[in-house]
Amino acid sequence: MKKIVLAYSGGLDTSVILKWLQNKYKCEVVTFTADIGQGEELESVERKAKQLGVKEIFIENLQREFVRDYVFPMFRANALYEGSYLLGTAIARPLIAKRQVEIAREVGAEAVAHGATGKGNDQVRFEFGYYANSSTIKVIAPWRNWEFESRSDLIDYAQKNQIEVTKDKIGEPPFSTDANLLHTSSEGKLLEDPWTEPPEYIYTRTSNLSDTPNDPETLIIEFKNGNPISINDEKLQPEQILLKLNKIAGKHGVGRIDIVENRFIGIKSRGVYETPGGTILINAHRAIESITLDRGEAHLKDEIMPKYAESIYNGLWFSSERIAMQKLIDSTQINVNGKVKLKVFKGNVIILGRFSENSLYENNLVSFDVKGDYNQKDAEGFIKVNSIRLKKNN
Description:
By secondary structure, this protein is of the alpha/beta class. The protein is 38% helix and 20% strand.
């Protein structure tokens, strides 16, 4: 091989992988870092790559594409994996994989590499993404092939090869983290025991409830075709909406979950996630759908949602079934327009009201004071017909 494109974060694992690839394959390694809102991690990425002799360094701001083309479609589906996980890590991988393959074509690389371990979901997500965008690309997964068995082995290798190791990586870190505009995840080490309470210091985006404001904050979120377009009548770009909601929700302690999930490869994993803005969005989206979707549409969406969420969790964003489900979901969003009023307070998202020009909610039908077009006597026949099968059980 002449060139390998590595998904590079600048952290210990991918820095060791970078050097290991150079030593093992004796070829040029190109680094690609996607800026999807992980924050300060990017500050030293270019410097570290140059220190390791990398000539072609790609650092690209993909925040708008990430939110517009990946996060928002997922939220149109109200996707939750196993009832609670908002898929913050899983939804980022297909975009990174797609762009990595595109860069491989641009620079003439035969292979791509990633830093996911052999026990996790990300190896599947990255590699499904690679193969969905190139049937001929070669994939290198060092954690499945190299001689290292632990984080301490990586630190030893880094020190022998003059690779910069930040102070908090000396020794074994208490947990591993992943971050983007949608969420921050923490797992491993002291969190591996599902009985152990997560220490407060692992939370970086959300305030402890004891430190949150004593007054609620009210928001009005406007939707068009199922996507949020403004907050308190201020029109914002997709990534700006998520950034603003993250700050507001984080201040009020919204968006923490502690779950044990079933990984695709068959291992149970405990994760602590912070998804502040996303927690507001899924509640607001369901609220506007409650008055704009027909019952059949709403229930059908709820039926396919677990399958849709599972396809993202399992790395199948580019699969034909996910695309087919997305088309169905998006066809229901044409009239999901309007505003949702809510407040955030002490870790809660509380819906206060919803309004839409496309509302299917009819006051005359639901009012106890107005007869409207509904004849209550008609309910008697409806009940008798639908109770026939129940009577047969007597």
